């Protein structure tokens, strides 16, 4: 029995190892994508693209770190034409490691505002993820809320909830604060946050928002789409959104975006795909499924999101989130932000 | 099988498993002094103590649970014993991060338990915080005790009750006989299971993230993803590997030359529990099963029911087929490879061969994504070589890979990862076969392959089944290596779990996670049927 089993496994192994690579066929117009954005968010989009243009999009998903290492290890043999990530930091890192090529496109430059694109045109944002302040309306008067920075003030002692500093969204937020205020002042702000914590930091934004609703804390910082997902299921959810830093530089935004890989076999097809993603046809498909905001300002957001009112985006280039990310991580370690 | 062939095979297997670890350790030559200074000052002191406490706690608690449950079900008769016998293995199929997520969901401030208490008894009542060090240790132990349980049960089933009876004849109480005889006699099995538990705890990232508990492994990922330094991450991982190897060698040294052969193969008779002890045993087994398996399972079913219409589609049969194929072939491969290594260490009773086997198991202690990179780099390099070679020699063009994206590489990678559960199970099983049995067989002219087929395999059946089960279930749950090495579009249930959890959609991850648990029932049933026979 064991022998038969082994023989069978060897056979299936042989079949796979011989035929799988041959499936990489040329001929059809095909773009290959490495994506850190989930399958359920990108597949409907690629299906629509194939329907419209006939171009086949093949993709593989993984976390950003492993995807970048994969690109590095594969070098010029990589099958990937496009890299998609869910934050600017990793695109910056990819560009910094020489894994991307220039994406010079007037279409993208028209569609996407400059602060959501790489200054060297190595990548572009495609959706906007806003990170702002949420509060329990029974415990907090919206008038008392102002900025991320003010949440460090002593009046919030024992009232603030934060997500872990290990999440890239918080690393980007602190990176942007460093860009704006410098390290010394930002460290004071982050220390103030840590002193104001109502409880241990949370592993995700959903738990954090639920804790605000349950009254464990009064106020917290989270990405809007997590809020959107909860409100979608529980319309009476006892948490309200506040657009932070209105009178200042505006709400901290990050992007989900894309770039063309350095060794793309089909860089023309890759560029076309990214241009299409920035266009009217694709933007809502790209953003609405995850309740993110379109990066293209000409496109209206999902009605649920529009119901939260308009907000001012912080116009510092999201590129800085990557540039200052490691400084931000170290700063949060020093401040005791877990 | 000729002896020298066995030796060559073992060396080859060892080299394959060591290559990725070598790649990870090669990062030690890139100095990252700025990051190390930072880590020394602000990160390492805490994570070292956290990791030590976590290992100690999880090791002790999961050993206690595993031994107690194995002792109860293997050597005693009480209500529902036959059910618990196999059901207590089931938490193995439940990914630890799911148990963590569910337990936190239930017992944290926002969960139903505390909400109920606040609602009926007012605020301000103290409740032990679940997001705490004891909380992590409890959840890890509830998820991992089956490794100890499974191996210990093999030991107790074949010797426990008999030895205790022997002890009683010598005037010991049953209690004393357990502590003085049965427990020490089961040492290799306990240690074998605990080692697997500790290695898995060390490399765990999912559960630690859910608890936001900082360990060595979370620091490794922070260095990589937060500080953008794979070098620093790999260096930290290398330290982990060195420490683990040191501990394995120390264990081997302390185990010394003791032998644990028991010639008796027959099932021991069971002690029937009466009165209060009978019910206590029932309550104990039930409550462990409740928290480690039933509650998480119910939560998964509840969530799955909510998202079923939205998420279940025609691809699911394929996900399940891929999962079963990958898990079973990987189980077969690891068992065969581990058997080679364990037989070599036995055939050549030499410290170096024993250490070689241990060395081959180190992949289990390396955080998954780091090991995945360690595997991918040499595979990609070999691919580049092959592509250039075939292009130059035969003018083959258009091939972007020969190795990457093949099931073959995927399976080798999984072998590197899961050698530890396979090897530990088989190695302890081999200790059961006496030299006399082997010598007698040799006297009858059985050697090599014949010896293996006629003597070792039949006597090792239970250990081989256990090893295969552990690897099967571990492979099903594995994410980083599957993600990195799978062919395009070749998704498994674990890949689906990844897609959903990476954006925090735990309810939607429930459907594939439930699939993993249900597929995991299959080998557990097979194993239990085999043992009952």
**What would you call the quaternary organization?**
heterodimer
How much helix is in the residues of chain B?
Answer: over 70%
> Whole-Å distance between the termini of chain A?
53 Å
> Uncertain regions of chain B: pLDDT < 50 for 5+ in a row?
none
Can you write the helix and strand succession of chain B as a string?
HHEHHHHHHHHHEHHHHHHHHHH
Taking the alpha carbons of the first and last residues of chain B, their distance comes to 30 Å
Beta-strand portion of chain B reads under 5%
CATH topology annotation of the largest domain in chain B: MetI-like fold
Name the features:
heterodimer, A: 338 residues, alpha/beta, 10-stranded mixed β-sheet, 10 strands, 44% helix, globular, B: 533 residues, mainly alpha, MetI-like fold, two-stranded parallel sheet, 78% helix
Question: How would you portray this structure in words?
Answer:
The complex is a heterodimer of chains A (338) and B (533). With 338 residues, chain A is α/β, with parallel strands linked by helices. Chain A has 14 helices and 10 strands. Chain A has helices at residues 2-22, 39-53, 64-74, 88-96, 106-111, 168-181, 183-196, 205-214, 224-233, 267-277, 280-288, 303-306, 319-323, 325-334; strands spanning 30-35, 56-61, 82-85, 100-101, 124-135, 160-161, 219-223, 240-242, 252-261, 293-294. In chain A, strands 1, 2, 3, 4, 5, 6, 7, 8, 9 and 10 form a 10-stranded mixed sheet that branches. In chain A, helix 2 packs antiparallel against helix 11 and helix 6 crosses helix 14 (325-334). The N and C termini of chain A lie far apart (53 Å). The relative contact order of chain A is 0.19. Chain B has 533 residues and is mostly helical. Chain B has 2 domains: 1-27 and 312-502, MetI-like (MetI-like fold), CATH 1.10.3720; 31-307, MetI-like fold, CATH 1.10.3720. Chain B has 21 helices and 2 strands. In chain B, helix 6 (133-169) runs antiparallel to helix 8 (187-203) and helix 6 runs antiparallel to helix 18 (448-477). The chains are: A alpha/beta (338), B mainly alpha (533).
